[in-house]
Amino acid sequence: MGEVERSAASVEEALEAALGELGISEQEAEVEILQEPKGGFLGLGSQQAVVRVRSREGSPTGGPGPEEDADLEEQGDVAAQFIEGLLDALGLEAEVEPAMVDGSMYVDIWGGDSPDAMGILIGRHGQTLDALHEVVRGAVQRSLGERCRVIVDVEDYRKRRRSQLISKAQNVARRVMRTGKAEALEPMNALERKTVHDAVARLGGLETGSEGEEPERRVVIRRGGGRFT
Questions:
Q1: What average pLDDT does range 196-218 have in this prediction?
Q2: Which residues neighbour 75 within 8 Å (Cβ) at sequence distance 6 or greater?
Q3: What is the average pLDDT across 41-49?
Q4: Which residue from 1, 43, 55, 64 has the highest number of Cβ atoms inside 10 Å of its Cβ?
Q5: CB 86: neighbour CB atoms within 10 A?
Q6: pTM confidence score
Q7: Which has the higher per-residue pLDDT, 222 or 228?
Q8: Where are the alpha helices (DSSP H) in 91-156?
Q9: Which residues contact 94 (CB under 8 A, 6 or more apart)?
Q10: Beta-strand (E) ranges in the chain?
């Protein structure tokens, strides 16, 4: 199967489902957003996000190519300008800086003399940061007419969390490989679940899938050949 369409409450969730069905990482995929999510009054008229994902020809050779680099840099600049305007409107002083890290474009927000304000931007378990990320993603997409692949970060919160997730996921994966017993990780958002899927895929011989409903949806790791619902 080289192409699938999936729908979910957010673009990230729909993308995760499509990538999982194809058994590929985002770097190996071409992604088309067919429909943005939209909330309706009291649930009426709401619509889910719909994405179409297809496998790229050939295997990825590492990081993004020159054209993708240019696209990501443009997205980073647009996102940074939007965030700067938003922070000005909120009366928050901070530095905003796009930076490419491990093939991903981050837009970093640094508080300097406003650590408390940065804590507010992150929120409990990163929930406020997740909401900010979605707002910025939507603004970039409307501006450029393409899917936003920028990751908004505050005081390196996401990068630290990513390192923790990769380490934990690979430790659990090795245990699953040794014991043969499937294990579930704690509930995570779609962006974090994709990090876990990619981390486990790099080890080989295992499968991951997401089970449960948001916000309790979590990644399950098991030996290859298992079945996810």
A1: 90
A2: 105, 140, 144, 146, 148, 149, 150
A3: 69
A4: 64
A5: 15
A6: 0.79
A7: 222
A8: 115-122, 127-144
A9: 87, 109, 110, 111, 112, 114, 117, 118
A10: 3-8, 29-35, 49-55, 95-101, 104-110, 151-154, 183-184, 206-211, 218-223
What is residue 168's predicted lDDT score, i.e. its pLDDT?
97
- The predicted-structure confidence for 71-99, as pLDDT tens digits, reads as follows 999 999 999 999 999 999 999 989 999 99
> How far apart, in whole angstroms, are the C-alpha atoms of residue 191 and residue 23?
17
Residue 98's CATH number: 3.30.300.20
SS3 assignment, position 52 = strand
Interval 113-119 mean pLDDT: 83
Q: Token pair for residue 138?
A: 């939507």
End residue of a domain, out of 35, 61, 87: 61
Cα radius of gyration (the chain): 18
Domain that holds residue 35: 1-61
CA quadruple 111, 189, 59, 180: dihedral positive or negative? positive
